[in-house]
Amino acid sequence: MIKYRSLRLRLFILILTPLVLLAVVLGVWRFTVAQQTAQELFDDSLLSAGLAISRDVAISDGDALLPSTRNMIREASGGEVFYHVTGPGGIYVTGYAYPPTSAATGDNDPYQPFFFEAVYRDEPVRVLRMTERVTLDNLVGDATVTAWQLMADRNAFANELSVRAAVLMGILMATLAFVVWFGVARGLRPLLDLQDAIDLRSPDDLSQIKRAVPAEVQGVVQTLNRLFGQVEHSINAHQTFISEAAHQLRNPAAAVQSMAEALRDAKTDDTRDQRIAELVTAAKNSATVAEQLLSLERLRHPTHRDQMEKIDFRSVVEEACAEMGVHILAKGLDFDVSMPDTDIPVLGDRVFLIEAIKNLLDNALKHGGDTLSRISVELACEKASATLTIADDGAGLAPDQQDAAFGRFSQLEHSEGSGLGLSIVSAVAERHRGQISIEPAKKGARLTLKLPIAV
Known about the structure:
By secondary structure, the chain is α+β, with helices and mostly antiparallel strands. The protein has three domains: 7-174, no CATH class; 215-299, Orthogonal Bundle (Helix Hairpins); 306-452, 2-Layer Sandwich (Heat Shock Protein 90), CATH 3.30.565.10. It contains ten helices and twelve strands. The strands form three sheets. The chain has a five-stranded antiparallel β-sheet with strand order 2-1-5-4-3.
């Protein structure tokens, strides 16, 4: 038996998995945005630092930066800012002696701030180079300010932003997982209540479930109610069958016992021989009833050994007529069999079909009465059906007697039969998707069995 994980866990995984994937995608996006944001913020702060440096150099005529400017640059830039300033003619003015350089010169406008990345003392840095027109000691010319900052400071800032976002998202996901886990449990509570209600039932209680359930479970409840109805109907049918079978077997069993006691008390050989013959007849009747009961039960519950296969219905009729012909002819009756020369394929169980035909012939033999002198069998193929007609000139059956004739343990008049023969024929016809019917006849009975032709 295949075992599945709990429904609660399945729903939890189905709900949470796409949310986790979405959180991962958002995390990657947030990290990328944090990198871009850090780049833009630090570039702006580096440009502000370059402008402040250029201003101080112009005000102080090339002296060092004011301490207030240094502190402002460090606080606004989020890390150490290095700088290098040259005056007109490329004269070194202030700052670090050896600034990072780049082969690229930026846009054509020499006064446009230019950003690039380089390596300074084995450390990757982000560099700003900007040129402005200044006056130093009565000299008018271009002053170039080069400011740079370690990339590690920028990355640390971006990572901090990402970590904050990841922590916030993790808290949200943990809260969501908690809510989903207990929310699913609460949502499944009607199912657990339904399970408890069914568990409290006794084995004999197959009544319909009338408990209010969610719309998603109504189909399951309807299926269970239909199954309960089928089981109850099957149990009732079994009980009825057992009751009727016990009633039908009681008479043959009592007859066998009575014949055996009479045989024991027989005074003469002639009486003993007569009692033996009566005992054999009673035993045969008892065995016939038992066999018919077993046949009915097999028809109601087919097993894997009851195979439906493509067979020649003509050969089935021949075999059944050969077995019953001996008994019919032994009673001095005419027995006519008519069938086509070609095969008539049907899909069915050979054993059951033979038994059904034999029961039809046996029914004509037992219920034909004193006027019975002839039994005929006619097999024909009409369109998509194989038609078997068994007729006799006996007491007769009318179409309006069909329900009583095909009912279990029912007889239209008292006879030596058990009342199961035609019931078995009806069950065989139903199982083979065919039909059995009583046709109108001027004299006697005429029963027709129709089966679909196998393609």
